[in-house]
Each structure stands twice: as C-alpha cells, then as structure tokens.
Write a structure and sequence with these properties.
The complex is a heterodimer. Chain A has two domains: about 200 residues; about 140 residues, Fumarate Reductase Iron-sulfur Protein, Chain B, domain 2 (Orthogonal Bundle). Chain A is built from 20 helices and no strands. In chain A, helix 7 runs antiparallel to helix 9, helix 12 crosses helix 15 and helix 15 packs across helix 19. The radius of gyration of chain A is 27 Å and the shape is elongated. The model of chain A has no long low-confidence stretch (mean pLDDT about 95). Chain B is α/β, with parallel strands linked by helices. Chain B folds into two domains: about 120 residues, 3-Layer(aba) Sandwich (Rossmann fold), CATH 3.40.50; about 120 residues, Rossmann fold, CATH 3.40.50. Chain B is about 45% helix and about 10% strand. In chain B, the strands form two sheets. A four-stranded parallel beta sheet of chain B has the order 2-1-3-4. A four-stranded parallel beta sheet of chain B has the order 6-5-7-8, sandwiched between helices. The chains are: A mainly alpha, B alpha/beta. At the A-B interface, helix 11, helix 14, helix 18, helix 19 and helix 20 of A face helix 2, helix 3, helix 4, helix 5 and helix 6 of B.
Chain lengths: ~425, ~260
Amino acid sequence: MEYIAQVAFIALAAFGIYWFSRNILRIRRNILLGKDEMLNDRSGERWKNMLLMAVGQKKMFRNVPVALLHLIVYAGFIIINIEVLEIVLDGALGTHRVFMEPLGRFYTFLINAFELLALAVIVACVIFLVRRNIIKLKRFISADLDGWPRSDANYILITEIVLMSLFLIMNAADSTVNGRFLISGEIAPLFSGMSDSTLHTIERTAWWLHIIGIFAFLNYLPYSKHLHIMLAFPNAYYARLQPMGQMENMPSVQNEVLYMMQPELAPTGEAQPMKFGAKDVQDLSWKSLLDAYSCTECGRCSAACPANLTGKKLSPRKIMMDTRDRLEEVGKHIDAAGNIKDDGKSLLHDYITVEELRACTTCNACVQECPVGISPLHIILELRRSLVMEESNAPQEWNGMFSNIENNFAPWKFSPEERDAWAQS
Amino acid sequence: MHVTTMAEMAARGETPEVLFWVGCSGSFDQRAQKITKAFVTILDKVGVKYAILGKEEMCTGDPARRAGNEFLFQMMAYQNIQVLNGYEIKKIVTACPHCFNIFKNEYPALGGNYEVIHHATFLQQLIDEGRIVVPAGGAYKGKKITYHDSCYLGRANQIYEAPRKVLEALDAALVEMKRCRSNGLCCGAGGAQMFKEEENGHTRINIERADEALATGAQVIASACPFCNTMLTDGVKNREKENEVEVLDIAELVASYL
C-alpha cells in the first residue's frame, strides 16, 4: 500500500516531464522553420550578454522599482526550486524531508530563506496584479492584450501566489518541524487545536497540490508568455551584436546589382528564383522566431514606440505576438499534415497589416527597451522588403521618392546639377 | 564661398584630410543648406583640408533601404562606393546621422570601408584639440539649450555625449528633456517617414517631440541631424513658438562664434 504514493508520484513526474519535453521540441522545430542566420560568433560577448541581460536583468533596471519586484519573483522562483529537489526526492523515495536530518541547522536556515522569499514573491505578485487590474497601466490595458494574453498574465500571477501559499501551508501544518520556520511558524497557530491526523491531511494535501501545481505550471509554460523564464537565456545569448542601426544585408540583391553593373561577372545559366524579404514566418530568420517565443508581452517596446504613443496602429509588441501566433498556426498544420501546407494565409496582411508596417520610423526604441533582447524592427523591415520588392506595394510618395533617387540621385526632385549650388550662393 | 571638390583636388594631385559628405538634405533643403554652410565655415576657419564630391555625390540609399527597396539601395551604394574608392577616400565626415550610419555600418559589407565620423564627434574633437576656441561670454552663454538625440546617432550608434560636450563648450545651460539619450523620442522622420504622410493617429510625432522640447523652457532646441531639424522646426511652428524658440544644428551654434 505504502508504495502507491511513490508510484503515483513517479508517474506524475514522468508524465509531466515527458509532455513538457514534447512541447519544447515542437517549439524548437517551429523556430528552426526560420531562415539561417549565423549567430555563433564572438561567444565571449554572447555569454556576457546572457549574464547581464538574462541572469542580471540589466535592462529591467531601466525602471528600478519594477525591476526589484521582478527580481524577487525571478529569484524566488529559481531559489525555491532548490526546495523542489527535496520534494522530488521525498516523492520518489517515500521519505519525509530527506535533507532535514543531515543538514541540521543549515536546513532551518535554508527553509527560512525560502519562506522569506516565498512571502516576498506573494507580495510582489499581488502588486503586479494591482498594476495590471486596478491601476491599469497603459501598456497593460492596451488592445494588444485583449483576450487570452490578458488572462494568461493574471493566471501566472495567481498560480505563483497559490504555489507559494501551498509551500507555506505545507510547512505550517507539518508537525515534524514544530513551527520552527520564520513565516510558517506565524501561520502555525491557525492550525492549533487540530488533531494530528487533520494536520497530516492538510500537510499532505498542500504537499501534493504544490508538486502537482509545479508540474502543471511547467506544462503551462509552452502555451504562455511565461515561457520567457526559459527562452530569455538563449535569446539574450543569440542577440545580434552589431550596432542597432545596421540593417541586414541582402547578398542576393547585392550580386544582382553587381551583375547588372558589371555583366562580365554574371554567372552563366538560369538564375535561381529569388524571394525577397519575408511574407510569412518561415521567411524570417530563426532568431526572429526565437524572439517571438521569448516575448513576455510586457509592452515596454510599444510604450516607447513613437508611432504607438501618437496613436498609430503599429505596436511592436503586437508584431511579436502576431509572429508567434502565426508560427503556432503553421506548427499546428505541420502537426496535423506532416508538412507546411498552404492555408492561404500569411503573417503579412492576415496578421500584420500594411498600415502598421508603414508607421515605423526605424528609431530602435523598441529594440532598446526589450529586456530580453528582441528586435521587432527586424521583422518590420523584412516585411517591408516583401511589400516593396514582391508586391510593389508602396505609398505613392515613396514611389516618387524611389524614382527621384533613381533618376536625380536624391529623394527630392532636384537636378543633380544643383547639388553643389549651395556653395555658390 | 568656394568649396573644393574631389575632382579639383585630385586634378592637383592632392588628397584631403577628410571628405565632407554633404548628403541630400544638406545639399538641397534650404534650411539644411545653412547647416552645411555653417559646418564649412568651421572647417575653413579651423583650416581643415577637406573636399566635397559635389555633383558626383549621390543619395546613400538610406530611405530606399528602410522603405524596403533593397535594389535601389544596392544601386546607389554600388555607385557611391565606385566613386569613393576611385578617389581612394579614407576618411569621411558628415552632418547627417543617416549617411553616417550607412557608411559606418552598411557600406563595409559592400566593399566600402572608410573611417567615418559624424560632425558632432568631429566638432567635439576640434574643441578638445583646441582647434576651435569658443570665446568666453558668447551669445549663448547661460542660455537654456535642450539637445534632441537623433535616433541614428544615439540608439543606432551610441553617440550621446559628443553633441552634449559641444554644447557645454558654448557655456550654455544644457537642460534635458524627459526622454533623452537612449530613451530619446524620435522626431518622426526616420525609416523614410520624411518622404510620406504619417499614418492616422491622435497626434504627429514631431509635435509630440516639439512639445516635450518646449516644455523644458529652452530658448534653443539643438539637433545634430538635418531631418530632426526639419521635423522639430515644423513642430515648433505648429505651436506658434518660432519667434521665441530657435531650432539650430550644433554646427550653426559653433559657427556663430567664429
């Protein structure tokens, strides 16, 4: 009989880990649908970026109070997971607090630290809920988040509060620790007068709910913006290292122009059909797709976007969310049919409209703001390339600007003969 | 004013210390021409040996590339690089952050490798080296000046301090806008927006930015980009403050002392 709990626990853990791995591999497959981009160079700088941006949360500290709250939740989440190691061992071995005896007083110190963090996490999550739902900060009430994304954010915060509470209740109801820990010791009097068996039931219930909650949360990640707690690390590592002002070169077009100017260099034979820019997710770099899955939907990008804050439709956050949603859709087609099927839809037009793309000033404020190193601008510019080069879709003024540059070598209709007229006057 | 072209200099068998890349705005836009002239005045006074390409200069292709027209960009880049490499140009100075960005970051991949310096950095160096001496108690002493960061100088290339050091050298009282340096708000011209109407919104970007600049109470809004200058000038006019507040390039401010 006593083995039933152990067997149940091992089955739960195995299934939780299996299902999570399955989803992560599916996400990896989706990201690799993107085009190649070499981002393996300068590993020293990349490790440094990862340490500063992902581990050290450097960019979060552009707003110190919020950064501190986030740091508590982040540190709490990681550090309290050390306690999960004990829970997993207990669950699998059928022991109870396997580290308590061997660690002695250090164990008390550890659990005290975890409990303090757990309380801090609860407080921070409550503040975050208030910011989202009562204070209603602009970036949180934006239409970008209507529907699932807004609920997603609240579910995460509520789940964190519940998990931390279960951890504290579990300790408070545990008669083997005699209320010796800092926070749960304060809660323990609530349970005074209860019989040992009731206490035991409460403790066991909290223990099981806590660990079931953790496995459920793990499996929730791949469906949620909360996936950033994992992907922020690779995303920061693979962040582009060139200056923000540098646009990706298109060697195919460069060669095309070279052969036009110097026909003797052109290779003989049929030219390969080319596709310019990105119309759909698989035309984007894999890094842009990793960006999309790493996005936390925090909206710092859109809050800084000059187009967005003057009321234009463009929202860099929506660009990232659209890319992720479209990629998920394409992924589902692959799951169902085994290959990318043409569903008559594309990222461009069906998800992201021309009006949004046109409003971008390429100012890089969104790239600057992103705490996890995402570049919405990269996607915007690739889609613009497709619009102009594949569809000849440009506003009339831009077509005029193009023809002026081509014919008069300046974006305005002035004669090239007049270029140095300023020096004569 | 006579400005030597590369063709003239090459004919004399001479090479310039630096090529001054004027850019389309600086060449054709009437307001920006004043910035060009101010910068040339400084170069002349300081005795920098420079040349311009004159009629051989062409658009770098920046607005075409940002709008999505890579073909046109590559064509312009090819032609410019042919001319620059033909003259064996080593060093370029420009008063336009967009030209600066493209020379610094995007031409190298196409075979155009030059040392490129924006005029903000160039002016700062001239001041540091003592080649420009600002007389004490000049016209801008103690005046409130706010500096607007150009995106292509600031975030794009991390140049935040050089233009501010130039302004400090004028003994002016530098006041910062709420959104400055890496938080700076765009003027609304970048990404080829200069050449089309804005999309529908509740306000224009240049007006949003001009309001922020005006809120500092500065008498001068300084910029280091001809496009920012145009956008902010329009924004200030829209608020009917053009008689109280000037929008000036840092080169114009420096030249006013010489």
